[in-house]
Fold each of these.
Amino acid sequence: MFNSNIFNYINVLDRAADASWKRNELLSNNIANATTPGYKRQDIDFEEQLARAMRRSRFQTLDTKIDNLNMSRLRPKVYNDSTNFSYRLDKNNVDADTEGVKLAANQLKYNGLITAINQEFGNLKMVMR
């Protein structure tokens, strides 16, 4: 048996797609609670974690960075955004218009990630032929 890292890109893309899906749920929940008094918007920090993990190996190729990536550190964390900030009297900090824009951008990102995963599997299929 040989040791191969052929699924490293797929694993990273899979984690990113999962985080994007979770962000979609959070943004939808924020929109649903836009009129709930005291509600604080929630978001997820996966992109910052991935960027931080990639910066650890600044002077390496992307392939090497992905190979050396510690997947256990790529755990998206949900957080309440700007908990001390509210521009409304009811202490809610959700702006439905902003959330809608973020939701649309996140859906595009998710679609791109799914396309990238499909391309990686297509590449594997092509190599196996």
Amino acid sequence: MSLADRLAQAKRDRGAEPSAPSTATDGNRGPSRRTLDPFADLKRTVHQTLLDNIGPKLYDARLTANELEQQVRLTLQEVLSQENTPLTSPDRARIAQEIADDILGYGPIEPYLRDPDITEVMVNGPDSIYVERAGRIHPVEGQFNDEAHLRRTIDKIVARVGRRVDESSPMVDARLPDGSRVNAVIPPLAIDGSLLTVRKFSVDPFQADDLIAFGTLTRAVAEFLELCVRGKLNILVSGGTGAGKTTTLNVLSGFIPGDERVITIEDAAELQLHQEHVLRLEARPPNIEGKGEIKIRDLVRNSLRMRPDRIVVGEIRDAAALDMLQAMNTGHDGSICTVHANSPRDVLSRVETMVLMAGVDLPVRAIREQVSNALDLIVHQSRFKDGTRHVTHITEVVGMEGDIITLQDLFVFDHQMGFDEEGHALGSLKSTGLRPKFLEKLAASGIKVDPTIFAFERFGK
């Protein structure tokens, strides 16, 4: 059967000509943004014909990615040229691109994954796609044909990293080959259709100058943090989800001298260090039988046997906190890691809770002494309502007073400056006038800090 005959048959089976774009209704979810694609049948038929023609080549290991892409696009043009349906040049180019994206990439979300200005892609069912651009979330026009189309795309994504997702294991957290993080949830857990979230990996990681240009921190604070890293202070980067903790961690890690042996430990490898002596470790989730899991805690323990100068942990969220504290307290200074928290004070409570998750029978005071002795500095970051990320606190962990860990803020974001007409924060990090106690520790490492950096700056001015 020719392509034209197959298309005509598909239209007869459907019982009507393709209708004009319209808005559909999706049960209890109310009006959706789904529109009827007038070329849906054409794309489906061309897609199937293309797979029939070159299907075996898609799995030919001898073909490189570029050769496969060239073969697909060449065959696609040949198939489209046989189509009798009149198509304008823009429509022909769009259909060819969408089918190529579906075969070679990840379907409707492929254009957004290619866009360097988009940092996150969120699929809330087959007919609803959102993206994050410049810190703000926007809906986009792309959509999947149906739930089955979305499920095939999710299966393709997780299969490429050796994972699977089905009704028996309806959640998956994985990393794409380019480093992007992927989370997928399918029914029955996802009630209104499969959910897919892709946090894109930055090919060109931000440097300190970039964060200064964005207003995330000031140049004086960046230079101060560089001295703290070089002086081997133990630093915790804290903040909420999407606050930019990993970006800041990557910048701080970049300050580590190039002659030190650095071990990075992450759930999904995102850090991009340019030092020569870097060893990257990544945790492994359990397989479908629930076996083979390697946790962050296991990697932290193992890293202590690898003669590290520095240990950098992407995120601590469980009992690994105890092993990290012990490492910091037993000569592994200069460690840096991140933790979810709402404020510098909340960081201490979170770490204390995670230590208790290790199941050790330690009194609370002993845990707090471990924390106060191990940590030197907390860098807290927040995401503002305008979508921008800012370091809001540079806080020193001073020590113990009775049963309480004492903190002192060295730099605090000036919220009194308010916002401009577009909702952008006008404030910046300002010194509180307090000098840190760890200046002696830095001096012992040969690091001198200009005391004028701690000169008091009036807030609200």
